[in-house]
Amino acid sequence: MSRKLRSQHWFGGLDKDAFIHRSWMKNNGLPDDVFDGRPVIGICNTFSELTPCNAHFRGLVEHIKAGVLEAGGLPLEFPVFSCGESNLRPTAMLFRNLASMDVEEAIRGNPIDGVVLMAGCDKTTPSLVMGAASCDLPSIVISGGPMLNGRFKGRTIGSGTDVWKFSEDVRAGVMSQQDFMAAESAMSRSPGHCMTMGTASTMASMVEALGLALPGNAACPAVDAGRARLARLTGRRIVEMVAEDLRLSKILTRDAFANAIRVNGAIGGSTNAVVHLLAIAGRIGTKLSLDDWDRLGRDIPTILNLMPSGRYLMEDFHYAGGLPAVMNEIAALLELSALTVTGQSVGANIESVENYNDDVILPLDRALTSSGGIAVLRGNLAPDGAIIKPSAATPALMQHRGRAVVFETIDHYKARIDDPDLNIDETSIMVLKNCGPKGYPGMAEVGNMALPQKLLKKGVRDMVRISDARMSGTAFGTVVLHTAPEAAVGGPLALVRDGDWIELDVAGRRLHLDVSDEELARRKTAWTAPPPEMVGGYQGLYVERVMQADTGADLDFLVGSRGHAVARESH
Ligand code: FES
Prior knowledge:
Elements: E1 3-4, H1 8-11, H2 16-26, E2 40-45, H3 57-70, E3 74-79, H4 96-109, E4 114-119, H5 124-135, E5 139-143, E6 150-152, E7 155-157, H6 161-172, H7 177-187, H8 199-210, H9 225-244, H10 248-251, H11 254-267, H12 272-284, H13 290-297, H14 314-320, H15 322-329, H16 346-350, E8 375-379, E9 382-388, E10 399-407, H17 410-416, E11 429-432, H18 453-456, E12 464-467, E13 479-480, E14 501-505, E15 510-513, H19 517-526, H20 537-545, E16 569-570
Parallel strand pairs: 2-3, 2-4, 4-5, 10-11, 11-12, 12-13
Antiparallel strand pairs: 1-16, 6-7, 8-9, 10-14, 14-15
Helix pairs in contact: 3-9, 4-5, 5-12, 8-11, 11-13
The protein binds FE2/S2 (inorganic) cluster.
């Protein structure tokens, strides 16, 4: 029994509708024979000059198209909302779910049999995978690739990570404004996304670990000819995947997510992967919880020596063998039978790879930290959980008791942080409220709030910080994030006051506010919800329907697979 391709419901037949579908496509120069039942491959392109990390996609897409044509498919490129991290305000995360809706409906509504997802900058990866997961067609990801290493005054500098350092050095008076400006040009030397293990590199690694991209996708630089070859092979492979009916739901199994969580630990990946993978799992209908992040990733050693946890950058990672080499090092910890877009298992994909630089990809007995991954904290301050990335934290602060210095909002923080009279020292715990999914809105990357200038000048470079916000994957520090429920919905974080004692115990997975239940109940009675930041429009809808961080911060009505709604018939 041969399967009738979905696109043939548009392009097959002799009736008026088929006439219309074909005729208008012919105005692009398409001849009769391309409607003969060959697979139609949608190429979902997040190119935008406002998303500089994806601005080279106009060239990259041509290689994908060539691959599709070589394999006998018909490539049709379409644009979707491009979530660029560096420009979008108030935060690109506010638009991840919107972009995913764009992707979903563009795929669902069009004559597409399989999809290539062109991702790069942070949120473009989860938004594309979430939208595609809601449709469950054969889909494959190609990332745009990282920028080349930054170079400044003879040393290597990394996107984001060195911005935070330089900015603190300027505030501490140990770097000149002139050098700060010069570093700006030295940091971004080529097309591509951030070349630290920030969220973009993490998510490029996550899609490879999930089995959604060809091996080698994560690390190959944007300007390396290898990236163009990978795009071409991706184009060829999606045509085969349509023939095999290799849909996302066959790949995005629980084993695939377990592999991704473990790989995230091994690479010292971004905390943002937590909300993105939870959201993707929610779309495809695979059971995954916040506690799975702790349980599955708890004893995974961080073996990738990349900023912000280590010292190298993505270009070095590529030369060392890329993600397949990392996966090979931790093969004993992976679900090797998990199926991938190659049509082969993870085990088959990585069995013959080599590690070419064991200072970049460290052997297990020289790991950066024996317990990488994401620690999930609970306690009366975070009943639904909060997270911390131990590999980016200061070991001495991972067990700490300190007095809270509270910032009610990000504006309150900005107004107060450099006040010389602020009652704060290095043992204090900085608490930032109202920066969660509803509070900011969009859950901005402000959790790694900069330290007070007066402490920076004393040489202090890390303090415990707690918030309901996220932080950039390029950032570091003893930073507790994603506290749920968030302050804006009346979570316990909303009730913290200056001077309260807080206990952080990462080993014990505990986050405790040392205030009696009775006093907290009194404070809760007196608490009033802040007025919504946004009313009306998409942003109003977002605030109304966004879920909390512990379940992926998706919009509640988008959760659950709707793949069955995509027309697919056999005859
Ligand atoms: Fe685009 Fe960092 S700003 S990946």
